[in-house]
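Minutes, project check-in
Item: structure for the 141-residue chain
Input as provided by the requester:
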Amino acid sequence: MTSPAFENLTVGDVVAEDELDFSRDNLVRYAGASGDFNPIHYRDDVAQSVGLPGVLAHGMLTMGAAGSVATNWLGASAWVKDYQSRFTRPVPVDAAEGAKVTVTATVGALDADARTARIDLKVVFDGSTVLGKAQLLAAFA
């Protein structure tokens, strides 16, 4: 894949799309890497005892994986200056089926003087947005 050039970007362009598959194994690995061993991320009984439908993906795992859709597209052509999001809905991860999250990255704004592009991420699970106002600011050389 060719790295994008700032000059070729237009507001509204969909620049990347992907479907992310989360499994319970992913959650365990992420817990080990992050140190977040909250049992709602690996035990259905604990998650249900606090009113959740079952085991949930870590919010930061969801956010990080969604951001990787944009950074994979950017390659070495830019660096991430800022990345922010709101957690709007949890992502339940079924023991057998896992969870599929779709990510669409769209150019939301361009600043020619700063050579930055705001990439808006639409992150959806089961028809509902799970990350609100997910925006990555990419700075181009």
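Outcome recorded: The longest strand covers residues 99-111.
No further action items on this chain.
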